């Protein structure tokens, strides 16, 4: 089979990422061997390829928004049969024994491992996934539409929860890419008024088409105070901007795995009156199941830019240059 490996992490994607012939992986105990039918291109992949996230495995195959079908079951794998459609996401495995796993916060497990970072991911013809970390996927979506749900959708869903948006509240979204355009639809379905702040004019147009109440520049003030906000853009300078847009008692959730440096916060302007800032770390399997169940009941419009698997480097370069307005997806 063929797969893309991170050989020399750095900003030159042509040098950092190489397509190479590889052996088809064998499913270990409790694992599924999956033929990749679609793999989303996430900004986290870009951070891994560029070296902004330190490599966890030499020559790793990136990609963690995997939609495929089961080819083979490893010893003891349960819940799936050959031919079943299946999803694999960022969280690959946890220890199941630590204090965090026992209390339902497996996303904080110190022994956690991640698809496309600690183990080979979906920029390849095949991949493996633990059966107990694989997802049953909802009907009504194409493979390409499902792929972004498996990270962009799940992380946005968790970030929305972390932001504690009240029923019918006012939500601010900073940055409007793959994750944000799905999160906005979830919030709208829950009765929220959504205000989008992003530098891309095309993204602002998409936000308004999806039902946002307003769409302005990344550093613009929304037309009304916000009850909650989610920061998707990996730009630390936007943290005080978003905090100052919050009403009293509002919460800002920072959704990215990577963020540039946050400037000094002014207590009176940014945090006083019980404003809160929270990080979002990975996700639990419960987050994934809940988001996919929501998508089954509330059809989401997943805006996709398809690329052939052989053009993974081009897809990442377009993402780095902000030429992708929605969710880039690799297709075999």
Automatic annotation (TrEMBL):
Required cofactor names: Zn(2+)
Entry EC number(s): 1.1.1.1
Record-linked NCBIfam families: adh_fam_2
Name of the protein in its database record: alcohol dehydrogenase
Keywords noted in UniProt: Metal-binding, Oxidoreductase, Zinc
Residues spanning the membrane: none
Lineage summary: Bacteria, Bacillati, Actinomycetota, Actinomycetes, Micromonosporales
Domain Enoyl reductase (ER): 14-324
Species annotation: Paractinoplanes hotanensis
GO molecular function: oxidoreductase activity
């Amino acid at each position: 089979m063929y797969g893309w490996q991170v050989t020399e992490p750095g900003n030159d994607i042509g040098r950092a990422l190489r397509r190479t012939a590889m052996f088809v992986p064998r499913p270990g105990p409790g694992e599924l061997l999956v033929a990749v039918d679609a793999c989303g291109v996430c900004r986290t992949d870009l951070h891994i390829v560029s070296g902004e996230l330190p490599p966890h495995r030499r020559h790793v195959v990136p990609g963690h928004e995997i939609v495929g079908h089961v080819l083979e079951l490893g010893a003891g794998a349960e819940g799936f049969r050959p031919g079943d459609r299946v999803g694999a996401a960022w969280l690959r495995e946890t220890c199941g024994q630590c204090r965090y796993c026992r209390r339902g916060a497996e996303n904080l497990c110190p022994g956690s491992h991640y698809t496309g970072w600690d183990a080979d991911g979906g920029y390849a013809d095949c991949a493996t996934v633990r059966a107990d970390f694989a997802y049953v996927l909802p009907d009504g979506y194409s493979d390409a539409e499902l792929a972004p749900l498996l990270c962009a959708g799940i992380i946005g869903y968790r970030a929305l929860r972390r932001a504690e948006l009240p029923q019918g509240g006012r939500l601010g979204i900073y940055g409007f890419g793959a994750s944000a355009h799905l999160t906005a639809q979830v919030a709208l379905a829950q009765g929220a008024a959504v205000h989008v702040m992003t530098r891309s004019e095309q993204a602002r147009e998409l936000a308004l088409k999806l039902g946002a109440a307003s769409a302005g520049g990344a550093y613009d003030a929304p037309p009304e105070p916000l009850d909650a906000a989610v920061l998707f853009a990996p730009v630390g300078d936007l943290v005080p901007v978003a905090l100052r847009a919050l009403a009293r008692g509002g919460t800002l959730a920072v959704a990215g795995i990577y963020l540039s440096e946050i400037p000094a916060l002014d207590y009176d302007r940014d945090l006083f009156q019980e404003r809160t800032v929270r990080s979002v770390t990975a996700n639990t399997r419960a987050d994934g199941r809940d988001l996919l169940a929501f998508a089954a009941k509330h059809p989401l419009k997943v805006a996709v830019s398809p690329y052939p698997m052989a053009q993974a480097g081009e897809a990442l370069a377009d993402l780095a240059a902000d030429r992708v307005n929605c969710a880039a997806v690799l297709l075999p």
